[in-house]
Amino acid sequence: MADILDRSAREPDRVVRYAPGETGVIDVYDPRGLARALVVLVHGGFWRSRYDRLHLRPLAEALAGEGLLVALPEYRRVGDEGGGWPGTFDDIRSIVRSVRRLVGAEGARLTLVGHSAGGHLAVLAAGDETDVDRAVSLAGVLDLAAAIDDGLSDGAAQEFLGEDAAAVATADPMRRPVPECEVILLHGAEDDEVPVSYSEAYAARDARIEFSHLPGGHYELIDPEAEEFSALLAALG
């Protein structure tokens, strides 16, 4: 299923800018007719610059086909100037605060959907920004301390946090208040990239968090041709 990383998709209907530079852009996929809601897709890639938003374009296209207005932003990652903590998260917060205006969806319900490291960023932003109505984490890296201890993806979490040993206290969703908005976690039981235990640990923090074990692995969650796509559609209502 990792072929989703290289699958082609149509170009976005428009591209808007939220910040200067190559990473300060948002691909916008417009639905046919009136949009049901606004979805911001936060791509994964273990916060590293070699992974960009393009691999989520097939998912963005599919969600727009389901009547959703989809915003697919880029953001600074490790390897980009200013990327890593806190610059990466600063970009996500800036996107959340400006996306309704930028895409012409003032007043729309806003759902953040993040995959892998993007799940970490989406849940973290939902806890900070009161304008988020729902956060959906797809195989999210929701336990940074565990990711560091596990050496996840050759030390990706430590690379993201950098030299500041205290950063984990503010960057780890496990140490931050649970968002007040609706939080839904989806994680494949066969995930060999991000342990399902990270989502299990986060879900155990609050009974309001909805958590679903799915049968597949890491990439089925972002593949609109996989059966797991129906679970994402259900989460988006």
From TrEMBL:
InterPro entries: AB_hydrolase_fold, BD-FAE-like_dom, GDXG_lipolytic_enzyme. GO terms for molecular function: hydrolase activity. Residues 27-142 form the BD-FAE-like domain. It holds the Pfam family BD-FAE. Keywords: Hydrolase. It comes from the Bacteria. The keyword Phosphoprotein does not apply. This is Alpha/beta hydrolase. It comes from Candidatus Agrococcus pullicola.
